[in-house]
């Protein structure tokens, strides 16, 4: 069930999505509340589970991670044991930054960021060595047109 949010809660969440490093003072000024009222609201949003940990967005290109690959996986196996092995294999690869079970022609989708095609091939080989997959189709991203957008509030 969606949480009820008022204008100040939405403003607070939007400001944090854009810049989680804002000082308490700047955050309060930006949304039009006192620092104490802002802190109480932020604390309440955290308690309700709407605000998790804070992170920093890094530039993959600047870090030498210029290749983004969307990997689509189809399997004939749907047991709990197989899924546990597959999940363990995927999450053990730090280059897999997103991992979804999906509906449609494929069963799973992975977003992989890495340095180049050779590095991606090593990731692919490591995954298929650990768990049996039926079909693996990879799509190389040519351009990130809209990446890591804020949630619509």
UniProtKB/TrEMBL annotation:
<dbReference type="InterPro" id="IPR036388">
    <property type="entry name" value="WH-like_DNA-bd_sf"/>
</dbReference>
<dbReference type="InterPro" id="IPR000485">
    <property type="entry name" value="AsnC-type_HTH_dom"/>
</dbReference>
<dbReference type="InterPro" id="IPR019885">
    <property type="entry name" value="Tscrpt_reg_HTH_AsnC-type_CS"/>
</dbReference>
<dbReference type="InterPro" id="IPR019887">
    <property type="entry name" value="Tscrpt_reg_AsnC/Lrp_C"/>
</dbReference>
<keyword id="KW-0805">Transcription regulation</keyword>
<keyword id="KW-0804">Transcription</keyword>
<keyword id="KW-0238">DNA-binding</keyword>
<dbReference type="GO" id="GO:0006355">
    <property type="term" value="P:regulation of DNA-templated transcription"/>
</dbReference>
<dbReference type="GO" id="GO:0043565">
    <property type="term" value="F:sequence-specific DNA binding"/>
</dbReference>
<feature type="domain" description="HTH asnC-type">
    <location>
        <begin position="5"/>
        <end position="66"/>
    </location>
</feature>
<dbReference type="InterPro" id="IPR011008">
    <property type="entry name" value="Dimeric_a/b-barrel"/>
</dbReference>
<dbReference type="InterPro" id="IPR011991">
    <property type="entry name" value="ArsR-like_HTH"/>
</dbReference>
<dbReference type="GO" id="GO:0043200">
    <property type="term" value="P:response to amino acid"/>
</dbReference>
<dbReference type="InterPro" id="IPR036390">
    <property type="entry name" value="WH_DNA-bd_sf"/>
</dbReference>
<dbReference type="InterPro" id="IPR001387">
    <property type="entry name" value="Cro/C1-type_HTH"/>
</dbReference>
<dbReference type="InterPro" id="IPR019888">
    <property type="entry name" value="Tscrpt_reg_AsnC-like"/>
</dbReference>
<dbReference type="GO" id="GO:0005829">
    <property type="term" value="C:cytosol"/>
</dbReference>
<protein>
    <submittedName>
        <fullName>Lrp/AsnC family transcriptional regulator</fullName>
    </submittedName>
</protein>
<dbReference type="Pfam" id="PF13412">
    <property type="entry name" value="HTH_24"/>
</dbReference>
<feature type="domain" description="HTH cro/C1-type">
    <location>
        <begin position="13"/>
        <end position="37"/>
    </location>
</feature>
<dbReference type="Pfam" id="PF01037">
    <property type="entry name" value="AsnC_trans_reg"/>
</dbReference>
